[in-house]
Structure formats: C-alpha cells, structure tokens
Write a structure and sequence with these properties.
- The complex is a heterodimer of chains A (about 220) and B (about 250).
- With about 220 residues, chain A is of the alpha/beta class.
- Chain A contains 6 helices and 8 strands, in the order αβββαβαβαβαββα.
- In chain A, the strands form 3 sheets. Chain A has a 4-stranded parallel β-sheet with strand order 3-4-5-6. A two-stranded antiparallel ribbon of chain A has the order 1-2. In chain A, strands 7-8 form a two-stranded antiparallel ribbon.
- Chain A is globular and about 45 Å long.
- The termini of chain A are far apart.
- Chain B has helices at about 20-35, 60-75, 75-85, 90-105, 115-140, 160-170, 220-235, 240-245, and strands at about 10-15, 35-40, 55, 145, 150-155, 175-180, 185-190, 195-200.
- Chain B has a 5-stranded mixed β-sheet with strand order 4-5-6-7-8, covered by helices on one side. A 3-stranded parallel β-sheet of chain B has the order 2-1-3.
- In chain B, helix 5 runs parallel beside helix 6.
- Classes of the chains: A alpha/beta (about 220), B alpha/beta (about 250).
- The interface between A and B is large, with 41 and 42 residues.
C-alpha cells in the first residue's frame, strides 16, 4: 500500500464529493446471509459527525474527478484548475472494506467524473460494487451514482449490486423557463429514471423493485 | 398497591447482589413479606439512615423464575425485556422503580398510566438506555491486531454490552472480535458466530488485553487515512461545534 499516494487521492476525491446532499444509509434491509461482512441497518447509523454537525455514515467519494465535460456549476469541470486524481477499483474496494471493518462507516457512496465516456465510467463503478459483493462478500450499504447517458444494461446491473441508485439533475435557476424544466425533470424521474432501476419480469404485471428508490421532488423545488 | 400493607412505617431498605435474578428475588421478598420498598441497593453501606429496617436478600433462582413467569404473563415478554433493559442502568433509583413497578402490577395497579411516576420513570430510563445502545453501535471503533483479532474498547454509561452483542455478531460475522468494557472489566468475544463474555483480570491499572498485543502492520495507515477522509469532508465555513457536540459528546 502506497500510503502517501492513497492519502492524497482520498483527500482530493472526498473533497470533491462532499457537497453531494445524499448521505443516508437507511432504508435498506440487506442481511448478512452468506457469513460475509456486514449488513444494512433499516434505520441507518451515523458512525460519526463532521464539525458542522452532518452525519457521516458512508465513505462518500468520487472514483475520479477527471471529467471530459465542462459544466459551469460543477467543481470538477474540465476548465477548473483543481488537483485531479483517480482511484483504481482495487483501491476503492480496499478502503471500503477496511473502513467498514473498523466500524468507521456503514457503507460506500460512489460517484464519478466522466472520463473517456459514460459507459466506461459506469462500467468502472459497477465493477467496484460487483467486486465488493462477490469477491469480498460485502453486505454493507452501497449507493452508486448513475452516469447520465450510460447504457441501460449497465444501469440494470448496477441495480443488482447496489442498495440505492441515484442521478443528479442540474437545472438553471431561470424563473421564466423553470416551470417547463421542472415538469420535464419530474417526467424524467418518474418514467425514464425510475424505469431504469426496475427489472421487468415477463411473468409479473408490475415491475419488481430492486433498489430503494426515492425521487426527491422537494429538492427540485428547493433549487428552483 | 393495596393499602393493607403499604403503610410507610412498614417500608424498609433491600440489599441484593446486583444481578437480574437477584432483583427478581427482591420483588419476591417484598411481595411475600408485604413490606414496601424504601430503596433497593447493592451495598449495605449505601443505606444511610439509622432507624429503618434493612433486609438482605440472597439471590434465589427458584423465586426469580416464579416472579419472571408471572410477570411475563402479566406484561408480555417484550415489556419484561424493557425492564431488564432498565436494570442495565445499574442505578439504585432504577432498581427501585423496577421493584415498585412489578409490585404495582402484581397488586392490580394500572401499568399503562404514564401519569404514574413509576411508569413514566421507567419509560424514560428505557429511552436513555436505548440511546446509549445505539450510540455504542455507532461509535465503537475496531483496530486490527497482528494476531488477526479485532479489538475495541468502550466506556458506556450503562452496561449495554449484552444489548449490542447481536448487532455486532450479525454485522462482523467473518471477524474474530473483542469489545471490552473499560469500566466494568469484562468484554464480549466473538468467533464464528458465537459471542461469549470474557472477564478481565486486573494487572496494575488496566488489564485490557489490547494493550498486550501489537497492532497489525497496516492499522496505523488506515487510521491516518480515515483522519484524512474526515478532514476532507469537513466544510470549515459551516462549522457548528454546538451541534457537533450534541451528536457526538466528547466521551466518544
């Protein structure tokens, strides 16, 4: 383990992820069925609190803050002069396992800047979750961000390993156009976004929910 | 409580060994000798007034079982478990509440009336202890030792080790771990799905086994990495130490 290198990456990539609102570890009831490591607590546990009083229950990091896009609102936009770093899949897996074993966290929250293209990035995120679940028998909480534009197969697979999937939708704060945008965003959330994490089984009338799903309309209103 | 035997003059102090069956034996004695409770204490020296009666109660498993069975029928198992929760507070005032509560129940009193100080008091204690249990589930920190055992030392306000055992057994099923209660000199040891209590023998001041074993090679590195993470997720501009302390008191 190259401690100095890992420390640097961790500080850059935790810093880049810290403004993301979600850090809940509740709502999932995964049990430790295979004698492996961990379970998910329905009510959630805050293992620690930051100095401003926020709950720290997950290792919340980006896989990388390298990004091919240049979105004005984002700290990781390509034109921004910030330190860049990237974890390997093994590093994220190793950090998660070791933090979890020490009861520092309840699980992993993994998002990422988009390197190369959406599918490559998404595939890397899925691989982290898959390796944790299969190789390391990890039953703790996993929250993956889905990358906009990633293929349906990948998002479906992410849903198989994760406890929660989410997507960020950024909306301009232009009052005139707001109504239309919000309506579109809601439409996307209720049909497009939600449909992706549901598994359609031909023998069932209703789609089968594979991960806890919540659309946060309140947040949309808040930012509008 | 029926008025026939609850006259204040007949009340007296009870001394017992601090165990749960011991407390149930106290209840048995109170009820069979019909002398109400002034206090329930673990040491005779805790009784300070001179002119009152003191009764030493020795633990009797048979009596305890009889009280337990009858109380279970009266209250149901979950509520009886709550009483046991409260007993883990290890406080004379709580022991007294438990004894009063059971006698109240056996003499036909209303057990759901929260205006009753006994009922209300126990409800509040149950809350304190559940809170301590939840905090311990969150704030226990394991360290890996060179022999592969994961150890943690805690100093909970109440004796909550029996309450947190299940959580840690389920969560850390593939680890051999030891959680030591610093103040009470005992701990829980887990290996392959079995949790068993271990007693610590005092050596000088602290006999905790963790101090005799070396930490694993990478232990320090992960502690440092965690600190790095913790510093990185902090937003100094929004520092709110009062809230921080409310969530995470200094003793943790």
């Amino acid at each position: 383990m190259n401690e100095a290198r890992l420390t640097e990456k961790l500080s850059v990539l935790a810093d880049a992820a810290k403004y993301d609102v979600s850090c809940a570890s509740s709502g999932s009831t995964r049990t430790n069925h295979n004698g492996g490591l961990g379970n998910a607590s329905k009510m959630g546990i805050c293992n620690s609190y930051t100095s401003d009083g926020r709950c720290v229950s997950l290792l919340k990091i980006l896989l990388t803050n390298h990004c091919i896009f240049d979105c004005a609102y984002c700290v990781s936009r390509s034109s921004n002069d910030v330190k860049r770093a990237a974890f390997t899949v093994e590093e994220v897996v190793d950090l998660t396992m070791n933090f979890y074993r020490r009861n520092y966290v309840e699980g992993l929250f993994l998002s990422s800047g988009i390197f190369k293209d959406a599918d490559t990035t998404m595939e890397r995120l899925v691989r982290v979750a898959q390796e944790l679940r299969t190789v390391h028998k990890f039953n703790g909480y996993i929250h993956l961000k889905t990358i906009p534009g990633a293929s349906e197969t990948l998002i479906h697979e992410a849903g198989l390993w994760a406890d929660r999937l989410s997507i960020n939708i950024e909306i301009p704060s232009d009052a005139e156009r707001m109504g239309v945008v919000i309506r579109r965003a809601r439409f996307f959330l209720s049909f497009g976004g939600a449909a992706h994490v549901l598994v359609h089984r031909p023998d069932r009338l209703r789609p089968h929910l594979i991960a806890p799903l919540r659309q946060n309309a309140a947040q949309l209103d808040l930012f509008a | 409580m029926s008025p026939a035997w609850s006259t204040p003059e007949r009340a007296r102090h009870y001394v017992y060994d601090g165990s749960w069956p011991g407390l149930l034996s106290v209840v048995f004695t109170v009820f069979s000798e019909k002398r109400p409770v002034l206090s329930v204490v673990r040491e005779r020296s805790q009784v300070t007034d001179l002119f009152t009666d003191v009764r030493d109660v020795s633990t009797d498993d048979d009596q305890a079982t009889r009280v337990m069975d009858r109380a279970r029928k009266l209250l149901g198992a979950p509520r009886m478990r709550e009483l046991w929760y409260c007993h883990l507070a290890e406080r004379a005032e709580v022991d007294r509440l438990i004894a009063d509560f059971l006698v109240l129940g056996f003499t036909g009193g209303a057990l759901n009336d929260v205006r009753d100080p006994t009922v209300l008091g126990l409800l509040q204690w149950k809350k304190h202890i559940s809170h301590e249990k939840h905090q311990m589930e969150a704030f226990v920190r394991f360290q890996e030792n060179s022999d592969g055992v994961w150890t943690a030392t805690i100093a909970p306000a109440y004796d909550v080790l029996p309450l947190i055992a299940t959580h840690f057994r389920k969560r850390y099923a593939d680890m051999e771990w030891l959680i030591a209660d610093q103040g009470r000199d005992y701990g829980l040891h887990h290996r392959a799905g079995v949790v068993s209590p271990v007693q610590f023998i005092h050596e000088q001041n602290s006999g905790l086994p963790a101090s005799h074993v070396e930490a694993a090679v990478n232990e320090e590195a992960y502690v440092k990495l965690w600190r790095t993470y913790f510093r990185s997720v902090d937003i100094p501009a929004r520092r709110n130490l009062k809230l921080h302390m409310q969530h995470m008191p200094k003793r943790h």
